């Protein structure tokens, strides 16, 4: 039976002060008789079009580089903040010469393509769609355009997936569609492929489909390493809810999908296949990380940063695990997904500007509040400008045009503190679930799929009394949890 709560989407202008203030521009908040989902202009379609529009504005922002900045020396692409890896790697990674990724050895020190297999396939397909006549500069421009078109599809998929993940909160996806850092960084690299697959995996999980969710996580991990981290929160949540069979479906689907993509290349071109992993391991401390601040301030290259980063990351993951199993209510999947990916990025040896793309859809689902989201986005936008100004300074020789190292270090701190701030707010919502904007209407975990409304089966504290157990929503059968003694309680 469908309740009123399931029929109408949540209206942000009635729950969010920033959204309400912005809504005054278009006539104020929606009234109680407003209807959604009728006619062509549904929330999902509006959000998809806005996401495409913002992506297009991001492409326009790259226009100075497209008109020559990528090719007329390093300075222009930095001073205009329009740098992209895509045109540079078209020739540098052998796509212009029709070399086969992972199989054909590249000239120079790189030896093989340093991207995961599915991203390499994406890059190769774009090269097939790029005409092979004309000057190399013209071909690089077209290659960027082809990739931008393919990445625009990914951006639309991300926005639609986020809009549909929380059934009653489609407008939360406006955070994704209108995110400034999302538009600015979307065409720097190929990260949107993995982000789109991850967002779709979370949509499948929210609809109670563990196997498709696992397959998509496996494919996303074949495009970028970070999506595999989502398997950790899912394990903890399924453990707490006693739904390990569902977790088995996710894990099995992920492993099989990853192997289907990777196994042929592993078998036929092992040296090329492992380049991504060896490159990640051997890569020195780089842009955007707090390790770079320490290295620049001390003059120490921090060759042991890998070990320290791994140790700090694992320690933080252990803290998240304890939080998950001791929280007064089982955390929402999106909250834990945001936290584990944020921890991974914060302690990484490099925090590239496009890594914000990994977090934007997770942030929109984990903490759908415009004030906190915009504070974080402001920090990311400042960093986006800061890194290019720093590179302009280092590439300008004696002229020293741009931002010196000390200024860049301050920008990195702003960048990191913005992510830490949003992470802290998410942790607060977990510890005090009454402050969680998603749960204020009585919802449990709209992105939790089979876990939504499920009782606790395992916790690291005394189980809540029967009357305090969270109710089951969405038509799911109500089943109460299993205490540590193994005694089942059913309502």
Automatic annotation (TrEMBL):
Its main location: membrane. The keyword Membrane applies. Keywords: Cell membrane, Membrane, Transferase, Transmembrane, Transmembrane helix. One of its GO terms (molecular function) is hexosyltransferase activity. One of its GO terms (cellular component) is plasma membrane. Residues 466-491 are annotated as: Disordered. The keyword Membrane applies. This is DUF2029 domain-containing protein. It comes from Streptomyces xinghaiensis.
């Amino acid at each position: 039976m469908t309740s009123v709560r399931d029929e109408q989407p949540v209206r942000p202008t009635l729950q969010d002060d920033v959204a309400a203030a912005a809504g005054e521009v278009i006539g104020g908040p929606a009234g109680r008789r407003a209807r959604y989902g009728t006619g062509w202009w549904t929330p999902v379609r509006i959000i998809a079009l806005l996401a495409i529009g913002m992506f297009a504005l991001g492409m326009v922002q790259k226009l100075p580089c497209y008109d020559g900045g990528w090719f007329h020396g390093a300075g222009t692409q930095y001073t205009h903040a329009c740098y992209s890896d895509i045109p540079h790697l078209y020739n540098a990674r052998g796509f212009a010469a029709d070399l086969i990724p992972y199989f054909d050895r590249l000239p120079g020190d790189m030896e093989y393509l340093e991207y995961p297999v599915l991203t390499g396939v994406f890059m190769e397909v774009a090269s097939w769609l790029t005409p092979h006549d004309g000057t190399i500069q013209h071909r690089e421009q077209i290659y960027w355009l082809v990739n931008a078109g393919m990445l625009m599809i990914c951006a639309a998929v991300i926005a639609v997936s986020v809009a549909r993940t929380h059934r009653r909160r489609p407008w939360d996806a406006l955070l994704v569609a209108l995110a400034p850092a999302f538009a600015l960084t979307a065409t720097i690299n190929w990260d949107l492929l993995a982000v789109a697959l991850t967002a779709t995996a979370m949509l499948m999980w929210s609809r109670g489909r563990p196997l498709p969710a696992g397959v998509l996580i496996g494919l996303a991990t074949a495009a970028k390493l970070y999506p595999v981290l989502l398997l950790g929160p899912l394990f903890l949540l399924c453990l707490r809810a006693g739904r390990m069979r569902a977790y088995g479906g996710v894990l099995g689907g992920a492993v099989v999908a990853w192997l289907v993509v990777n196994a042929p290349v592993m078998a036929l071109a092992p040296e090329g296949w492992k380049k991504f992993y060896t490159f990640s391991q051997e890569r020195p401390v780089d842009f955007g990380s707090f390790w770079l601040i320490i290295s620049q301030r001390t003059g120490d290259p921090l060759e042991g940063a890998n070990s320290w980063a791994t140790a700090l990351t694992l320690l933080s993951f252990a803290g998240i695990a304890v939080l998950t199993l001791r929280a007064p209510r089982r955390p929402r999947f999106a909250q834990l997904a945001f936290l584990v990916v944020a921890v991974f990025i914060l302690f990484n040896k490099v925090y590239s500007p496009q890594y914000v793309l990994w977090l934007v859809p997770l942030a929109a689902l984990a903490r759908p509040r415009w004030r906190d989201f915009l504070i974080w986005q402001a920090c990311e936008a400042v960093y986006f400008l800061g890194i290019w100004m720093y590179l302009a300074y280092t590439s300008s020789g004696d002229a020293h045009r741009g931002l010196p190292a000390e200024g860049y270090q301050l920008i990195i701190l702003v960048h990191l503190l913005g992510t830490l701030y949003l992470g802290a707010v998410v942790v607060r919502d977990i510890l005090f679930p009454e402050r969680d904007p998603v749960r204020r209407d009585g919802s449990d975990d709209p992105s939790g799929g089979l876990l939504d409304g499920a009782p606790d089966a395992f916790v690291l504290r005394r189980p809540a009394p029967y009357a305090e157990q969270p109710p089951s929503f969405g038509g799911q059968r109500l089943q109460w949890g299993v205490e540590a003694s193994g005694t089942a309680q059913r309502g």
